Amino acid sequence: MRLTIRDLQAYKKRGEKLPMLTAYDYPFANLIxxxxxxxxxxxxxxxxxxxxxxxxxxxxxxxxxxxxRAVVRGTETAHIVADMPFMxxxxxxxxxxxxxxxxxKSGAQSVKLEGGRRLVDTVKExxxxxxxxxxHIGLTPQSVNQFGGYRVQGRTQETAQKLIEDAVALxxxxxxxxxxxxxxxxxxxxxxxxxxxxxxGIGAGIHCDGQVLVIHDVLxxxxxxxxxxxRKYADLAQVITEATNxxxxxxxxxxxxxxxxxxxxx
Length: 266
What we know:
Elements: H1 5-14, E1 18-22, H2 26-35, E2 39-42, H3 46-49, H4 61-73, E3 79-83, H5 93-105, E4 110-112, H6 120-128, E5 133-138, H7 144-147, H8 157-173, E6 177-181, H9 185-194, E7 199-202, E8 210-213, H10 215-219, H11 236-253
Parallel strand pairs: 1-2, 1-8, 2-3, 3-4, 4-5, 5-6, 6-7, 7-8
Helix pairs in contact: 2-4, 5-6, 6-8, 8-9
């Protein structure tokens, strides 16, 4: 039985922090669920972490759907959120409904949209159609070209007030949770205190109701990539490189395969 949006909202009511990670395939989804992660995001971050794009903008609904199905097959209890990629919901509400419906039919339990008050009507229509929506404000990576890069949002009094108003409006529209990305921690604390639904921070400090990170950052898979807001809990890039180097050496020296790793006639 998968966790529902009510189960996730109960974390805030209990005062318990909500941990969230991304996953894009069967094995990683299976492993992090077994470790106890209650909510998994199939993010459009698949673009710059798996597909080799410079950012999330080129990712399509078909890309998300492909990876979403693998994640769903690798899990049983985690709540699966699917990102709605760039231009899959911004043009009109009909497109948003159709694309969100596709993601739920592919196994997601909810979808995530980037943007503030301009999305209120879209969120209302999705929720009315039975599609749970997670909001996302602050640094919204799909708007990286407009922002002129990955910059902290809400540093001035004016922009901070706009983000607070965005959060309140999105809650009123029906989002069940709200991601706050790359905003000052005091602003994140203010937003978290103003709304009843959980806030999930990424680069937003300790005062959010939960935290989300990209699995590749947590495991140190992207060699040479260091991000201020991400903590590397392992260095798998080094482990993978060392294992591959040892394999190459064993093949070239004749050390692999061994007699025990070879088949013989009966």
